Amino acid sequence: MRTEVAIVGAGPAGLLLAHLLAQDGIESVLIEARTPDYVLGRLRAGVLESSTVDVLTRAGVGERLHREGMEHSGIYLQWPGRRHHLDFVELIGESVTVYGQTELTRDLMDARQRAGQRSYYEAADVVLHDIDSEAPSAAFTDATGVRRTVHAAAIAGCDGFHGVSRTSIPAARQRIWERTYPYAWLGVLAAVPPSTDELIYAWHPEGFALHSMRSESTSRLYLQVDAAEDLADWPDERIWDALALRLGHGQDGWELERGDLTGKAVLPMRSFVSAPMRYGRLFLAGDAAHIVPPTGAKGLNLAVADVTLLSRALRALVREGSTRLADDYSESALRRVWRCTHFSWWMTSMLHTSRDEFDSRLQLSQLEWVASSTAAATGLAENYAGLPIEFQGAPS
Ligand code: APR
Ligand code: PHB
Asked: Which of 14, 69, 181, 327 could form a disulfide with 99 if both were Cys (CB 3.0 to 4.6 A apart)?
């Protein structure tokens, strides 16, 4: 079969790219390894920057987001005895919206259904061919066992960290940067209304904790644990006791409401960047090219920024035969990737406790500085809530 753009991976990056291309009348074929329910079942962060909300709104997939999303003016930074509110709206005039990635993925799947374009779920043995030519193709075995090949003008690798796209680029043409952190997050979903109006990022001698949410009736909470932590060592009571301690239950009368835990998982923490994000007619976007620790809530926003830039490049390539944006794509996308990689590393390093007393003093001093300096608070706000899609960095 032939299409204009073959997209490998139907997570947020692949689905949004398909939608943005369809808005420009560009046809695509989606090739996804899993079932729709499996893709929807992945519990992932959903804190959307204003630039992400703008992209989704302009693309006509923001209706439920505006109806059900929870707009937050900022976050709380906490450490023993202190809880400080950072007001992003006051600092930089931007808010963030809490809207689970599952919901966004559902909205994008509905849009794909309405577009009536071809999507192959449960696709196996995906192999990319001739990606360094102007006639690349993606071969796969469909859910019925039929081997198919999609010929396209370009291939978008949106298949995440474990996909085949990034590894289809010759190793000699690729550079990898990676940092694995000595801790992980134990994440839980709790059937209890959030005990806070906005997210609480808490530093504590026993370890970091985060109080987030999914709705008015569902809380999402995380605990720093060792990288090799065994979930079996964390019965519900122990989880709630650790969350209560680290989030300051009883501090200034604040209480952490407990409830049934409906989901538990240990999530690894890593920073990962691969460059370039383009090789011939293969373009990488989202987790296929980079991974950030979730402390900065950047993963989904970075995927949206990548595919916004990529959709413009592919439209120019396919409709006008112009390669300028395609040639610039990797460098433009990587400027924002490195900005978010640094910010996610900075938030992670500031908030995750090591057993080293010197490090702890540095972390507490940094938290005090952000809480007392408008300049420092503005820096955090800019990176957390206010990065433009086309982040340019310093003028060359
Ligand atoms: N062939 C086809 N599809 C594949 C393959 C493959 N070989 N390997 C993986 N996939 C699919 C996965 O099943 C998944 O649905 O590619 C999709 C990749 O989606 P994500 O991993 O969600 O990545 P992305 O779309 O870039 O979204 C990034 O997800 O991981 C979070 O924090 C991250 O919020 C961010 C978002
Ligand atoms: C979440 O709600 O899952 C979440 C929010 C903010 C983060 C990470 C995860 O930084």
From this structure: 69
